[in-house]
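Example record

One chain of 131 residues, shown exactly as stored in the release files.
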Amino acid sequence: MGDRLRDLSLLGGLLLWLVYTRIYWTIQVGHLTLPPCPFYYLTGHPCPFCGGTRSFAYMWQGDISDAVRLYPLGPAMFAGSVVGVAGLAAGLVTGRTWALNLSRQQWQLVVVGVVATIGLSWALKVFVLGN
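Predicted C-alpha cells for this chain:
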C-alpha cells in the first residue's frame, strides 16, 4: 500500500508540473504563474533551478535551443519527467512498482553525481548563458 501511494503521489506531482508547464505561456499573459525565484530577487543571480519552468514550456513547443539556454538540464529533466509519468502510470495499472536497492556507497555516488551535475548546469547558466 505504501509503495502504491508513493507512486500515485509522484505521478500526481509530475502530471501537475507537466500540465502547468504546458499551459505556462497562456497563463503568464494573465499573470497567473507561480512567483519568480526569491533567490534571484535577493542576489541578482539565478539559483540552480532558475529557468526550469520556461525551459519545460519551450520543450512543449519543441524549442530545444531556448530550453537549453534557459536551463541546461531542462530538456533532460523534461524527457525524464515524461518517461517517469509513463513508468509510474504503467506500474499503477499493472500493480507493480520499482525501487532502487543501492548500497550506502552507491547512494553517496548518486548524490555526488547529482550535485555535480546541478553545479555544472548552474555554472553554465551564470558564466556562459547569462540570466
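Notes: The mean pLDDT is 92.
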